[in-house]
Amino acid sequence: MKQPSWSALLNRNAALIRSATRPLRERHRPQSSGGSWLMGLVMGTDGPRRYYLFRPAGVRFGEKLPLLVMLHGCHQDAKSFADSTRMNAVATRERFLVLYPEQPRLANAQGCWNWFETQTGRAFTEAAWIMKAVDQVCMLYAADRGRVALAGLSAGASMAALLATRYPERFKALVMHSGVPPGTASTPAAAIGAMQGRRQPLQPRSAGDWPPLMVIHGDADRVVSARNAGSAALLWSEAAGARQEPVQEQRRGKRYPMRVTQFKRSRDVVATLVEVDQLGHAWSGGAARQRFSDANGPDASRMVWRFVARQFESTRPANTQD
Questions:
Q1: Dist CA 178 CA 284 (whole Å)
Q2: Are 99 and 53 in contact (CB under 8 A)?
Q3: pTM confidence score
């Protein structure tokens, strides 16, 4: 019987290795949406931190695309958040970059952003490395620095709010989905009370030109009280001297109904409050059979982009790369 050649053995072993490692590689890649899923690293004070970037196909040389920063919630990572929200599909259709910073389990065992650790400064350290990731993406992938927005779910929403109020000049819009407003907690113990809606946010000293806010929250949320949604909208409204508009009842098809309230200063919308009936602690209108996702809610990803795009309209994209 003829023995296989060394070349054949090497090829066979390589095929076996590829087959064995494919699930390990693919578990970090979300469902295909017609673009590239790229991993990057930035150096934090306690070591390297990882982020992922979705880049739609067909980006031309010198083209500047808007950037949406998406911050996942507890018990999630970049891939699961991308799969749940399906934001990459929206980015493919509308042509923008999506940045997914990822909280390592060494920083928080549940993968939560430590938005509440302001007393120790840990929250600000995490905010700083996220800003490094934003800067790196703007430099390496030609994101338009003048068209950057934030969105997050739960702990990610709270961290996004911290970023928007700490670096207001860097962001054109903020979307909080099921989160806690900034200035509500400074310790882990206080965070629990804040999540239950038992604490009111303190007006920060520098409540200047914060980016416009959209708040999305389910009235059946048992993890983060829906009272936080109203508190966030009111915080933005009072900081800007805005007035509350009449509540509008809306429903699309068989999806859960929602109540939309706008807060305006002159003709400018400072904050938009979206309260979704029957929605629990989940991304509204997200992918079915995904954790922290409810396919029956109105499509939050579409709402996020429509809101963000309106804020980008007044910003002319740069013509040259940084």
A1: 10
A2: yes
A3: 0.87
Structure tokens at 67: 């950037």
Beta bridge pairs of residue 69: 99, 150
Instruction: State yes or no: pLDDT of 205 exceeds 60.
Output: no
The structure tokens listed for 242 are 């805005």
Residue with tokens 């993968």: 111
pLDDT tens readout for residues 215-274: 999 999 999 999 999 999 999 999 999 999 999 999 988 999 999 999 999 999 999 999
pLDDT tens-digit profile of 146-196? 999 999 999 999 999 999 999 999 999 999 999 999 988 888 999 998 998
Signed CA dihedral, 120, 123, 127, 129: sign only:
positive
Token reading at 319: 């013509």
The length of the chain, given as a count of residues? 322
DSSP secondary structure of 132-195: HHHHHHHHHS-EEEEEEEEEEETHHHHHHHHHHHHSGGG-SEEEEES---TTS-SSHHHHHHHH
